[in-house]
Amino acid sequence: MSNLHSEGQFSVTNKPKIAFVITSLTSGGAERVLSTLANSFVADYQVTIITLYNVMPFYELDSRIKHISCKESYNKNMRFIDSLTNNVYMIGSLYRILKKEQISVAIGFMTTTNIYTIIASKFARIPCLISERTHPDYDPLTNFWIKIRKKTYPYSTKLIVQTAGIKSYFSKFLNPEKLAIIKNPLADSLIAFRDESKQKENIILSVGRLDLVKNQRLLIEAFSEMEIDNWKIQIVGEGELRSELQALINDLNLENSVELVGSVDNVHDYYNKARIFAFTSNFEGFPNALIEAMAFGLPCISTNCPSGPNEVIDDGENGFLIPVGDKNMLKRKLEILIAQPELGERFGASAKASTTKFETKHISEQWKHLITEALQG
Fold first, then answer.
1. Are 42 and 72 in contact (CB under 8 A)?
2. Which one-letter DSSP state was computed for residue 16?
3. Within 10 Å of residue 141's Cβ, how many Cβ atoms?
4. Helix-, strand-, coil-residue percentages of the chain, each rounded to 5
5. Kind and range of the H or E element at 311?
6. Are 259 and 231 in contact (CB under 8 A)?
7. pLDDT per position in the chain (377 positions), as tens?
């Protein structure tokens, strides 16, 4: 997937050196955002991505980006003392990389990595920006990490969040001047594949990892109770609930009309051919897949979950919002869009127009403003 080049291929330049820090570069939403931003920054900065563990990048990276890992692999069977030792190792390794690469600004992604980045950056005496990617009220952190987060986050240069709801949480223990809201960017590499000439099919699409948070069960059960012919559901994503969801599909005799597609690198093909997009999350940091579907001109139905959907969907104007977990309302809204294709077209056009502000060029400028502030210190 990646055309990443190895270390040491940079020419001498005066561009500031920045480093993103994240656990790994697998196929998640945070990883897509980081990869999109890193690619957009290569014209202005020398960009390094530091991952805690060495995993082949899922999303394509510009050849000018340097990738360094702190450790080869993750040990799932660590005892408590091993975990503490690993934390100390990660901070030390991260500090050494920041110093060796002469990084001017470090940018952390996700809670544990943010904490490592703050401490390592303090030792390296450089500013650090950190970015939360989930809603903290619903983040499955242990009390240990919640306490460490409250202690360390005030030492960051700036915390970037995606929604007003998440900002409100952190404003309880962070100076408001340290908080900034920046939405997630739409990947240029994805939008480039938008093709309105593609023949639409009677598909209700859902995109997201297969877990309790995304609640694809709600969509499958709602669909099973609808009296419609010649429609099917495609769920793009992979996760721990695959076998459970497949068993549900089998139990409901939906094997021919509900497909668990798995993780793909051509998600644009699915956006291009679907007629409706359904987003059933119980909570979100920011709904990347929903924004992508809207950008592809799909009429969307989304749960009004914390946080994000109600900041991008104006109910009844460019999509539908439904209460979290409300199967009957989901059925009703799906039936409306199926029965009224002209309404779906109107929603889709409005949705596409409303997402232009999420284009990478706009979002990256907001990030670059904060990086410049940090550099000027």
1. no
2. P
3. 15
4. 45, 15, 40
5. helix 309-312
6. no
7. 444 333 444 444 689 999 999 999 988 788 989 999 999 999 999 999 999 999 899 889 999 999 999 988 766 666 666 678 889 999 999 999 999 999 999 999 999 999 999 999 999 999 999 999 888 888 778 899 999 999 999 999 999 999 888 999 999 999 999 999 999 999 888 999 999 999 999 999 999 999 999 999 999 999 999 999 899 999 999 999 999 999 999 999 999 999 999 999 899 999 999 999 999 999 988 898 999 999 999 999 999 998 889 999 999 999 999 999 999 999 999 999 999 999 999 999 999 999 999 999 999 999 999 999 999 97
Residue 240, token pair as written in the block? 């721990």
Buried b (16+ CB within 10 A) or exposed e, 106-131: bbbbbbbbbbbbbbbbeebebbbbbb
Which residues are CB-contacts of 176 (< 8 A; sequence separation ≥ 6)?
none
In the numeric block, which tokens belong to residue 251? 């139990």
**CA distance linking residue 337 with residue 332, whole number of Å:** 9
Q: Which of 117, 113, 17 is nearest to 66 (CA)?
A: 17
CB-based burial of residue 377 (10 Å sphere; 0-12 exposed, 13-18 middle, 19+ buried)?
A: exposed
CB 32 within 8 A of CB 59: yes
CA 257 and chain centroid, separation: 28
User: What are 178's two structure tokens?
Assistant: 């340290």
**Phi (first) and psi of residue 258, to 5 degrees:** -130, 120
Asked if 253 and 227 touch (Cβ cutoff 8 Å), the reply is no
Alpha-carbon span 84 to 50, nearest angstrom: 20
Q: Are strands 300-303 and 320-322 parallel, antiparallel or unpaired?
A: parallel
DSSP, collapsed to helix, strand or coil, labels residue 19 as: strand
The β-bridge relationship of strands 105-109 and 17-22 is parallel
Q: For every residue of 233-294, which 3-state class applies, written as one string?
A: EEEEECCCCHHHHHHHHHHCCCCCCEEEEECCCCHHHHHHHCCEEEECCCCCCCCHHHHHHH
**Which residue has 């959907």 as its token pair?**
309
- CA distances (Å), origin 48, targets 26, 65, 103, 254, 288: 17, 6, 9, 46, 24
